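Service request form, structural biology core

Requester: graduate student, group of Dr. S.
Request type: structure prediction, single chain
Budget code: on file
Notes: please return the result as structure tokens.

Sequence provided:
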Amino acid sequence: MVASSELPIAGEASEHIAESVSTVCGFEVLAVVEANHIYLICRVYPRLNEIALENLCPFCRGNCNCKPCLRTDKGFKDLRNSKIKITENEKDQHSKYLLHLLLPFLKRFVQEQRKEKETEAGIKGLMLTEIEIQKVACRKNARMCCGNCKTSIVDFHRSCPNCSYDLCLTCCGEIRNGCLLGGEEEVSMQFCDRGKEFLNGDLPSTSSGTKQLLRMKQKDHSKPTSVDDEDLIKPTPVDDEDLGEPTSVDHGDLSKSTSVWKANEIGSIPCPPKEMGGCGSGLLELKCIFNLNWLSELETKAEEIAEKYNLAHVGGTSTQYCSCFDRPIDSANKNVRKAASREDSSNNYLYCPTAEDVQHGALEHFRQHWMKGEPMIVRNVLELTTGLSWEPMVMWRAFREITSEKKPSTHLSVTAMNCLDWCEFEVNSHQFFKGYSEGRSYDNMWPTILKLEVWPPSDFFERLPRHGAEFVSALPFQEYTHPNFGILNLAVKLPKTCLKPDLGPMTYIAYGFPEELGRGDSVTKLHCDMSDVVNVLTHTADVALSDKQLVEIEKLKMKHRAQDRIEIFGQTHTKYKKVEKFQSIVPALADPNSSGEGPETAEGGALWDIFRRQDVPKLEAYLKKHSREFRHIHCNPVEQIFHPIHDQSFYLTIEHKRKLKEEFGIEPWTFVQKLGEAVFIPAGCPHQVRNLKSCIKVALNFVSPENVHECVRLTEEFRLLPQSHRAKEDKLEVMKMTVHAISQVVKHLDRHSG
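Core staff response, request fulfilled:
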């Protein structure tokens, strides 16, 4: 039974009694408090002994759904923050592995700083050893970014002594070369709201009066671009004459004009003019954040340790052999799942062990796939947890809070995304969750598809600590994924004084629909996360539709296709071609182990498409070629492209995936995520998701040493985006993580080298 020390305190007891009457496994259980002990009385089976009651009681099992239990952090905060059990030998091996993979990045970084120091010596006419660089005081929990390209500054940079304008070394080099790439001007995207009739498939009439046109700026997020992040600001109406005809954006030449801002002949750089963010007076001075020689000394020490341990041949870095194919690829081999049909390719199958399998030394196997940039699926991860409910109404009831009648809680309404017009609006949270379970539809019976991005707010796992602990306990490969103590997760290497990126966990809640609608689908559009991601499907709900509604949906889909042929393809008279149901089009890619039942199996919740890194250039070329065949805000065809993937404006339908393979010879890994499955997405792999049911997913970003090169590459891509772009700012700071990770590893191995 429950010990008295584990009971709620007196002030909580009465509330717990009021809400702890429940039915568990068919038994009605009542909690009664007496003398600081809870006695469980089973009304149906009073002869059950204490052990049997313990096995049935949700309070004893740790998954009670009453509000006090859901909010309590007693014991669960410790569980979430509990360290992973790792032996000293394992810690040594992980440290060597980290040093082996990260040292090349440190050497390149130090070389860049050494080059700038040599430039400074030339500017001042001094010997390299005579150069003194002022150290700046970086505020705690503050991020220092380049004033031009918004990339984070790790150490060396140039700063104006008058206005404190900061410039990164990359921008310094580009200015001296006369080709400043980072820091494009702000952009605004133009959209036309042509009304509900247009959304329903009617073509706008030329005599229908003045149209309401909208301008929308790309949102500057307070959180980094992460797994499934699609927040958009609400568009602001503007006058018709303010907008010209929409035009595609040509990024053939990303460089800024340097006619105003130029470097001097000797290499010194003046502060930029006021219109570019500076003061226009004085020269930018070279400054540092760390002690002057700290990084070069760290490089030397790291090289000595690498040579001592012969890290060029460290274990765990081979990508040659994999045991996945030791067994025949058939329905009996559940540890692989067919996800593509590429010719002459050995990576059409994805590694998908069970959560129990990965508890027993599967880390090396994980690495073999991870180093090749392959996604993975881990099955049944929720089976190793306490079984806490992820029912949306349970979460809503526990999270709901009204402090007083005069101060209503902000949690009673949520900002939802309407997948039909891709705009946000406020909706009562209870009504949203009711629609999650029961469904919603418009007057014409077209399904209303809504989604919440990152709900509840970022303090969710503080308000509901048990769900936080439940999620962390479900994570496979915690050496990589644990948000606090993952020894191979570079995100945990930042010191406490550093401002850490918000990597989650984050909850995504969305309605779903089993078939592809073609318009208003419950999707996360094609995007590329700034780091690695693990995404767990924690809950699904089926919504039944009547035969009458299904007939009306088919009629509207035909109407939408007719509108597309006229507006997008310029056709006027074309016979309708009936589109087959989803499960009859790609049954082999849905799940080859599900006996051909396709994605509408009871467990299936979300359809994933993940592209290989080497296929990204061809994917981008396809999107640029066919961009106007896609619809985005207010169902308008996409007219402007700043970056075909980072804009998050495209979702490739079945037809587009077919054309992509036909024209460019590439295809994604396609599979259905089932309830309790954790999907691992490597950094640099563009992906998109469509919800086949109402789904709750919880995602966590992490930074693995194997994919630092991709994080660095993505940082450079984000750097080239326009100033107001949603993915612009470097909030991951992967190089800062890398430097601190190497520092910790060097200290550990140096202590144990004796």
